[in-house]
Design goal:
Layout (H helix, E strand, L loop, with lengths): L1 H14 L12 H6 L4 H19 L5 H16 L2 H15 L3 H9 L5 H20 L5 H22 L20 H12 L14 H19 L4 H25 L2
Helix pairs in contact: 3-4, 3-8, 3-9, 5-6, 5-7, 5-11, 7-11, 8-9, 8-10, 8-11, 10-11
Length: 254
């Protein structure tokens, strides 16, 4: 049990800025095992975001409460996934070879593709949440953060890590995942869907699997696999696709 607690805290330290015990580090062994806890960390991040929305909706307009909830999740993760999405926009937008794409993604500076991409992504995220029924947003935030991380982390199980040299960034990355770890991630990633009142919410798995299939093939084609930035991009896109899918479901399936 103590070992599992350490593995969980490794995931928490890896994915968020939430303070962790000093005895937690970025051990490669624990980091790879911690990948199964990524959706659980998503539940925690989503809960923090949902708590901000729930509290502020009583004293501020819904639109502002949503912005504050998004800001809370970004501060909690240190814009970890947003940074990855922006780097992917820059890398694949400006690079035409594997070496060039990886080099651009390594660069800490933000380019035109990244600025436009992350701006549109955040706007689309806020707009889609704003159009959802207010009474569903708390559950939606929790579920969206969990299931989007499941979609991203599942690539670790099926795909190859694209960087095998010193071109990788200094921040660590889990590059292995066991079958048992994947099963645990699937259970925790899908668990928040049970909170919805409608069974039609499970339809969202179809577009999410399409997102996973597309990006897996796209990354393999251009760089031979995934990087940490690629996982961040898949998480961001999956989160927005989940929200958009719910919009369609609530409009036509109820």
């Amino acid at each position: 049990m103590k070992k599992e607690v350490r593995i969980f805290f490794t995931a928490l330290m890896f994915f968020t800025r939430i303070p962790c015990p000093k005895w937690v580090d970025h051990s490669e062994e624990y980091l790879n095992k911690s990948s199964r806890y990524f959706p659980m960390v998503g539940i925690l991040v989503g809960s923090i975001s949902a708590l901000f929305f729930y509290g502020f909706q009583f004293i501020l307009p819904k639109e502002i409460a949503l912005l504050l909830s998004m800001a809370a999740s970004i501060l909690t993760t240190g814009a970890f996934h947003e940074d990855g999405f922006a780097d992917v926009c820059d890398g694949f937008g400006g690079g035409w070879t594997k070496e060039k794409i990886l080099l651009i993604m390594k660069d800490s500076r933000l380019g035109t593709y990244g600025v436009i991409g992350i701006g549109l992504m955040l706007l689309l995220k806020w707009t889609s949440l704003n159009y959802l029924p207010t009474e569903t947003i708390v559950i939606t935030l929790i579920a969206g953060h969990a299931i989007s991380r499941l979609n991203a982390v599942s690539l670790i199980f099926t795909d190859e890590y694209a960087r095998e040299d010193d071109t990788s960034k200094t921040k660590p990355l889990a590059t292995k995942m066991s079958t048992g770890g994947l099963a645990f991630a699937i259970i925790t990633g899908l668990l928040p869907l049970l909170l919805f009142a409608t069974v039609y919410v499970w339809i969202t798995l179809v577009p999410l699997l399409l997102v996973r299939w597309y990006f897996s093939g796209y990354f393999k084609k251009w760089i031979g696999g995934y990087t940490g930035d690629c996982l961040g991009a898949v998480q961001q896109v999956s989160e927005v696709v989940f929200y958009l899918s719910l919009l369609v479901i609530f409009k036509y399936a109820n």
